[in-house]
């Protein structure tokens, strides 16, 4: 009995005497919601953390203490992320907590020099960041973070919500790093910039906006794409969900526009590889439903519909060619993963011949685009309103 | 032994029942013979004694009495007394016992036998709706404190000679009657034997409630979970008997014991079998959910908010952080304070006279719910957690078993507070091992899951329709017979 009692006592004491434990109350952590990394003025890295202030974010208690900032941005310069992070920690009363970070923004200057040194921390640290969205900006990244949120409570939330809506390319750190390290694939990410939002009272404010893409080769920024071009990237990579296309009807046929929503978009990349030549065939498909018709074309007529269909196909092809040209000829970055397609069609040839000289081969390869659009509907009214006059 | 001399025997009884103001000695003359009626006032039906015993005895023909030379008790019994339940004995000990249990004793001068006339009648509560187990659909009658009423309630539900009711008396002073009831051929013989033996082993001064018996026949006296079931509902007893269980009905309490008991009876309510099986199955699943909530919600809250903040959605974490901003205590202490406060409030609600009951709920709701949050002592999220946990514990139909879960919540909270989710899972695993180890009258407590018995699963996670529950979910094994004819799924005639 005595022995049993002693044993029981030991068991009870065991958890109490460990002295080291990971307990942290929610009010003892500083939630990082967004991270901005720039090249520092004096040192390698300027790290800015956007930290949520729960006091002003939660449900308002009875005695509201007025409108206070929902987030604060703290910055520090240093040689490595770890070092800067410790420097910032010294100034905060709460422990920096990275697990809830949703956005990482990197400035152009740093990106041009290479991002692998900074991304290493985020893939290695125990509060993993791989699910955060990675964004690049031509401006100073820390300034984007400091923009005031308008609809959402925090800037980071405004950015992620825009992303969810389908505005950007939705590239997570995980995807970015995988593409960076993979053979025959290059990383890209959304571009974020501050744009002016005109308000009712004639005042204007800067808001973060996702538009365009940053194109990389290895870990170095090569150039930027605008919004239309970046959509082409998604399309070719089969990540495009839905969107709007508008075609102009030529004046011979009466002019006007036809606008349509495009859905069920898919694409396939095929590579025809021989020792001498690589040919890539991109096949894309899409369903289209017409929602706007200000032209003179009568959509009840099947023949006219065929022409409209052709026009859509041409338009899509033009767009994709624009993107391909930019990536292939101008930036020389294989963001579509064509190299990977080559590997899939002939792994041996890829390893033997193309793997090491893909950089030189890529700008020269022949790319063929085939688009196929299906007209799924013409909306509720078939005739254009202008036609009846 | 009785001497046959009335005066002597009566005096001996008077010594035994000395200083008892409620005993009545009624002398009477049967022609030449002297007799005496002895009974306790209040335990007998006076009107019936007047009409069935006194009147016939006093009015009977003196001639007839005197004509026969020897008046044997048996003759008197046959001719005069018009009561059904009559017995006799020569032992003084029997006489006192019968008087104590409410029989009327008739002593006649010259007779060495005493006549016991059973005209018991005392004030008793009528059959009312059971308060601790309310159903929407189902019979509304509940057991009362009267043993005979209770056996009747069961007998009326199972009209078969196979329904056995074996009577026993337990308690040196209380001499409490109890009835062991089972259906012969369905209940396992060894189980009945075991229950008999365990009850025979009881040697206690008094049994005042079924809880005494429950604790004294328990398999594992240190068990957190009750290993013997109890109910106020005769329909539940009848249902249990049909599943091969044994019921123990005890005098002076409306609670009937059911043995053996398994863990899954915790989520079975009699209503499950009366409602449509789809509804019942849905509610069953709901109960499992709330069972887990009731056991784990506070500890999960403590564990996640103090160790695993990354598991919560950002906006939820921010709300929790905002609510906890001004609170002075760590989450574990806060949870303990609130849980203890809730348990206190609940206990107060049970004990309080009805008139002040509403006052408690108002004070509880206002003080704990609102004022404490506004004053910043506790966070509003904690109030929500405690409230949901409180509701969850009432969802579980087995009251006693729900109480076990209620108690286990506290060690879980400590584990969560010291070791986070790791501790919670350690606790759950330990609990699972512990439950699997328990046995109730030889039946594994966690059966039919551990050990797995796939035949009996139809009434565990969902309630299968009656036409699909062919086999009796019994424990005996050999007595398992078909309950319902095969292929009795109803439908229109072809």
UniProtKB/TrEMBL annotation, chain A:
Transmembrane segments: none annotated. Residues 23-193 form the Spore germination protein N-terminal domain. It comes from the Bacteria. GO terms for biological process: spore germination. Coiled coil: none annotated. Residues 211-379 form the Spore germination GerAC-like C-terminal domain. PROSITE patterns: PROKAR_LIPOPROTEIN. It is found in: Membrane. It is a lipid-anchor. GO terms for cellular component: membrane. Gene3D superfamilies: Nutrient germinant receptor protein C, domain 1, Nutrient germinant receptor protein C, domain 3. Keywords: Germination, Lipoprotein, Membrane, Palmitate, Signal. Belongs to the GerABKC lipoprotein family. NCBIfam families: spore_ger_x_C (TIGR02887). This is Spore germination protein KC. It comes from Oceanobacillus polygoni.
């Amino acid at each position: 009995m005595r022995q049993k009692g002693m044993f029981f006592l030991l068991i009870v004491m065991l958890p109490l005497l460990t002295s080291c434990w990971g307990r942290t109350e929610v009010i003892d952590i500083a939630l990082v919601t967004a991270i901005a990394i720039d090249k520092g003025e004096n040192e390698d890295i300027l790290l800015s953390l956007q930290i949520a202030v729960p006091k002003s974010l939660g449900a308002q208690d009875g005695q509201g203490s007025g409108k206070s900032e929902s987030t604060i941005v703290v910055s520090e310069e240093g040689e490595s992320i770890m070092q800067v992070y410790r420097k910032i920690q010294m100034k905060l009363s709460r422990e920096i907590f990275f697990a809830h970070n949703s956005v990482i923004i990197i400035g152009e200057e740093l990106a041009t020099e290479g991002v692998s040194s900074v991304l290493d921390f985020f893939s290695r640290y125990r509060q993993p960041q791989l699910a955060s969205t990675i964004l690049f900006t031509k401006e100073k990244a820390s300034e984007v973070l400091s923009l005031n949120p308008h609809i959402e409570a925090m800037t980071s939330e405004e950015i992620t919500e825009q992303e969810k809506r389908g505005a950007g390319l939705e590239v997570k750190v995980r995807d970015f790093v995988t593409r960076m390290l993979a053979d025959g694939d290059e990383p890209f990410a959304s571009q974020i910039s501050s744009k002016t939002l005109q308000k009712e009272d004639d005042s204007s404010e800067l808001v973060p906006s996702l538009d365009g893409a940053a194109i990389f080769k290895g870990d170095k920024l090569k150039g930027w794409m605008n919004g239309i071009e970046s959509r082409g990237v998604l399309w070719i990579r089969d990540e495009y969900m839905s969107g709007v296309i508008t075609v102009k009807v030529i004046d011979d046929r009466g002019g006007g526009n036809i606008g349509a929503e495009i859905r069920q978009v898919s694409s396939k990349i095929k590579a025809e590889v021989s020792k001498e030549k690589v040919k890539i065939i991109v096949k894309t498909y899409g369903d289209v439903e017409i929602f706007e018709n200000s032209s003179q074309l009568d959509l009840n007529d099947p023949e006219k519909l065929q022409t409209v269909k052709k026009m859509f196909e041409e338009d899509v092809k033009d767009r994709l060619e624009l993107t391909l040209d930019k990536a292939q000829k101008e930036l020389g970055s294989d963001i579509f993963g064509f190299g990977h397609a080559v590997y899939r069609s002939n792994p041996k040839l890829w390893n033997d011949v193309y793997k090491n000289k893909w950089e030189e081969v890529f700008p020269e390869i022949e790319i063929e685009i085939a688009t196929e659009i299906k007209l799924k509907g013409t909306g509720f009214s078939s005739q254009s309103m202008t036609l009846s006059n | 032994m009785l001497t046959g001399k009335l005066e002597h025997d009566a005096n001996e009884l008077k010594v035994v029942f000395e200083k008892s103001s409620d005993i009545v000695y009624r002398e009477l003359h049967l022609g030449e013979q002297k007799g005496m009626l002895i009974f306790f006032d209040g335990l007998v039906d006076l009107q019936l004694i007047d009409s069935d015993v006194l009147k016939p005895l006093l009015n009977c023909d003196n001639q007839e009495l005197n004509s026969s030379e020897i008046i044997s008790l048996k003759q008197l019994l046959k001719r005069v007394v018009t009561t059904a339940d009559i017995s006799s004995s020569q032992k003084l000990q029997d006489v006192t016992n019968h008087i104590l249990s409410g029989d009327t004793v008739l002593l006649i001068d010259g007779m060495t036998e005493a006549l016991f006339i059973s005209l018991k009648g005392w004030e008793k509560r009528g059959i009312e709706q059971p308060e601790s187990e309310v159903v929407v659909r189902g019979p509304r009658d509940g057991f009362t404190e009267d043993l005979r009423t209770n056996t009747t309630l069961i007998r009326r539900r199972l009209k078969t000679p196979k329904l056995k009711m074996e009577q026993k008396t337990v308690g040196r002073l209380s001499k409490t009657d109890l009835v062991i009831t089972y259906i012969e051929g369905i209940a396992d013989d060894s189980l009945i034997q075991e229950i008999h033996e365990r009850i025979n082993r009881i040697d206690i001064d008094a049994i005042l409630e079924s809880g005494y018996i429950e604790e004294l026949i328990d398999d594992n006296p240190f068990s957190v979970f009750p290993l013997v079931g109890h109910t106020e509902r005769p329909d539940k007893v009848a249902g249990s008997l049909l599943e091969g269980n044994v019921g123990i009905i005890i005098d002076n309490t409306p609670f009937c014991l059911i043995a053996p008991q398994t863990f899954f009876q915790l989520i079975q309510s009699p209503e499950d079998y009366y409602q449509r099986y789809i509804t019942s199955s849905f509610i069953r699943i709901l109960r499992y959910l709330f069972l887990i909530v009731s056991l784990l919600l506070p500890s999960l809250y403590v564990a996640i908010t103090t160790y695993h903040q990354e598991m919560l959605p950002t906006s939820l974490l921010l709300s929790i952080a905002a609510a906890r901003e001004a609170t002075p205590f760590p989450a574990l202490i806060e949870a303990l304070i609130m849980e203890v406060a809730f348990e206190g409030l609940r206990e107060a609600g049970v004990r309080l006279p009805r008139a002040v009951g509403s006052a408690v709920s108002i004070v509880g709701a206002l003080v704990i719910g609102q004022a404490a949050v506004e004053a910043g002592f506790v966070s509003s999220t904690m109030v929500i957690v405690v409230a949901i946990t409180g509701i969850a514990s009432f969802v579980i139909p087995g009251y006693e078993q729900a109480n076990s879960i209620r108690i286990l919540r506290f060690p879980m909270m400590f584990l969560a507070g010291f070791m986070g989710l790791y501790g919670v899972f350690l606790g759950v695993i330990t609990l699972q091992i512990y439950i699997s180890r328990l046995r109730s009258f030889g039946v594994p407590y966690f059966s039919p899951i551990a050990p797995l018995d796939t035949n009996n699963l139809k009434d565990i996670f969902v309630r299968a329709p009656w036409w699909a529950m062919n086999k009796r979910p019994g424990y005996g094994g050999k007595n398992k017979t078909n309950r319902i004819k095969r292929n009795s799924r109803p439908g229109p005639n072809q």
